Amino acid sequence: xxxxxxxxxxxxxxxxxxxxxxxxxxxxxxxxxxxxxxxxxxxxxxxxxxxxxxxxxxxxxxxxxxxxxxxxxxxxxxxxxxxxxxxxxxxxxxxxxxxxxxxxxxxxxxxxxxxxxxxxxxxxxxxxxxxxxxxxxxxxxxxxxxxxxxxxxxxxxxxxxxxxxxxxxxxxxxxxxxxxxxxxxxxxxxxxxxxxxxxxxxxxxxxxxxxxxxxxxxxxxxxxxxxxxxxxxxxxxxxxxxxxxxxxxxxxxxxxxxxxxxxxxxxxxxxxxxxxxxxxxxxxxxxxxxxxxxxxxxxxxxxxxxxxxxxxxxxxxxxxxxxxxxxxxxxxxxxxxxxxxxxxxxxxxxxxxxxxxxxxxxxxxxxxxxxxxxxxxxxxxxxxxxxxxxxxxxxxxxxxxxxxxxx
Length: 407
Ligand SMILES: *[C@@H]1O[C@H](CO)[C@@H](O)[C@H](O)[C@H]1NC(C)=O
Ligand SMILES: *[C@@H]1O[C@H](CO)[C@@H](O)[C@H](O)[C@H]1NC(C)=O
Ligand SMILES: *[C@@H]1O[C@H](CO)[C@@H](O)[C@H](O)[C@H]1NC(C)=O
Fold this sequence. Notes:
This is Lipase domain-containing protein. By secondary structure, the protein is α/β, with parallel strands linked by helices.
């Protein structure tokens, strides 16, 4: 329901501000430096650009390389469609080093501060790296969310060419990091590269609106890389609540981040915490540690107190990690609180506080997400326990407060 509302809302926004003309630009045939023709059809509806003929390379999808040699001013990178066609050898690209490819989301560009922070933290670590940024800002522009969603497939295909050109140098340590719509976009990079799989994709609060009901070929999932790890910080709202990787971390309950109420830009704050936590994970000494939970639904039902084994989240994750994990952070930077030792009562109370908050503030979303059978099962289990005879067995499904009291 909420997601339909979101899409309708953004559509409305879009349509309201449109002139009544649709223009198809004349630059359908662009000659590239290789001399090959690259026809591209773009429909512009007001400020919304919708790519129809999805051919790459595309001047609206550009690549930049940061390296120890160029840590502040990235080098532009030219990527061609054909094998061997690029100017990577003229850049500081070093095939012997690990490669990161960072992809921004909707209404943003590659210079989004929380993404630049990731780059900064990588370079604070002593090792050198190839850090590519994909810039598709003109195809991701607000207020046209549906157009940006549509364009992710095309941008994914163009980014796949970057991966192909990199691999031609024998570089195999390739890690895609996508934030928000960029997280879902990595799915289309993966689809284009099949049967090859990149070793790792990290989804940073992959976008929710527009992706909840679509099939796995159209959104990030664990089939998209040898290892897919996902951080959820604004589930139900800007991010997806769905488990999307081999391992999914729900930070502070996954919806509302501590400290975000204090900031003016509340809407972006929760969502942007995913890249902020990830950036911190690169250099943190304490580390973000998560404890296992069978599913996010189980968390909502209060079935996931802190327990062992704890696993580390973020850059240094062990690629054998699997399943849903819950993480608690501080409300200000540095956010990592390290591993819990002994009785984790404080962590448990924080986790419960977040859970109650979610149930209170987003009960409609929660109810449309969780399975009613699951609710019934939880209630039956509860009724079998000793103190259960105080209440009726059949709750009003509309009333999450009541259900919460019950479980
Ligand atoms: C590689 O090509 C890009 C795009 O044409 C250009 O901006 C950049 O300067 C080139 N890099 C080098 C090192 O020649
Ligand atoms: C990753 O986890 C596996 C299984 O728990 C373990 O055997 C392995 O040593 C770990 N790898 C690293 C690098 O910690
Ligand atoms: C939900 O349950 C609470 C506690 O039983 C009750 O006070 C409240 O009126 C109920 N709300 C609705 C919408 O039924």
